Amino acid sequence: MSSDKKHRVVVGLSGGVDSAVTAHLLKAQGHEVIGIFMKNWEDDDDDEYCSTRQDFLDAASVADVLGIEIEHVNFAAEYKDRVFESFLREYQAGRTPNPDVLCNAEIKFKAFLDHAMRLGAEKIATGHYARVREVDGQFQLLKGLDPLKDQSYFLHRLTQAQLAKAMFPVGHLPKTEVRRIAAEIGLPNAKKKDSTGICFIGERPFREFLNKYLSHQPGPIKDERGRKLGEHVGLSFYTLGQRQGLGIGGIKDKGAQRGGGEHAPWFVAAKDIPNNTLIVVQGHDHPLLLSPALRADDLSWTAGLPPSLTQAAAKTRYRQADAACQVGFEADGQLQLHFPEPQWAVTPGQSAVLYDGDVCLGGGVISAALAR
Hints:
Blueprint: E1 8-12, H1 17-28, E2 32-39, H2 52-66, E3 69-74, H3 76-92, H4 99-118, E4 123-125, E5 130-135, E6 138-143, H5 160-165, E7 166-167, H6 175-184, H7 206-211, E8 219-223, E9 228-232, E10 266-272, E11 277-282, E12 290-301, E13 311-315, E14 323-329, E15 335-344, E16 351-356, E17 359-370
Parallel strand pairs: 1-2, 1-4, 2-3, 4-7, 8-11
Antiparallel strand pairs: 5-6, 6-17, 8-9, 10-11, 12-15, 12-17, 13-14, 13-16, 14-15, 16-17
Helix pairs in contact: 1-2, 1-6, 3-4
């Protein structure tokens, strides 16, 4: 982006410190800044876990300190249609979706972007830790410079049209610097802790939340040899690699040495959906938890076209180091990635995201872990 040009920028103010500093930086650069608070969830948002009301008060306080307007916009209907219904379908099918990826593509950079354009905005900005670079008229999505905070994984479905309008002012800063700036200019939320969890679930117990929306049927928990170890409460409530909440102790097993000894912890390794059975194995590095390849579909590429490179790096889940991989496409267009180092707990429903150095190329939704 040519930084000398001043824009009318609509900033998504979430009530958090990252978006607050985003608005401050843009205003300091001379842009005309308008704040928007997005309300994306309405069901039970008045209970102890949902912080929408407090978040709006925090966002309004930030707008007051910065001297900018703020508008409260309700996208709950769009969120339910475009994100939440898909989230439930995926869980019901036994997969583990990543709703934050869909929320960015469908709400923050679609519904919100459309609204901002109606307000006469030329750009929109969020507090994501990522960067956009224009090269010969093409817009590239880059990792945030703080490796501990990089959020390009969640933004990999953005298109050229969306990237052309997007600004990520904190993407070149470490989180410590963002907090320092917030304190220096007296922002009321300078020390507010980062939100965790999915936007519409907040801090509430996940299983309790899903229980209200999904039908579920208990069934057996078995090891890889078919021995029953316990009962699960419904396959939707478990994800591959899960260790907590299985309700089975460290069962002594002289034959379980592959996984790391007779008292090694149990992990979810697979879901046998036709037989409503949860398969568990002992030991973090059990072979059934490691996959040398995966298949992905529902592909989205930031350049608008699939990458031509055959070697890249990939993340198969957020907060994972980039893993070298070979890139290939099947006859039906599905993506195949092959890893020299097998990947741990490759999970259908999660995103596989490709990188060429710092450049995020896009990716797809994992449909299957492959044996080779």
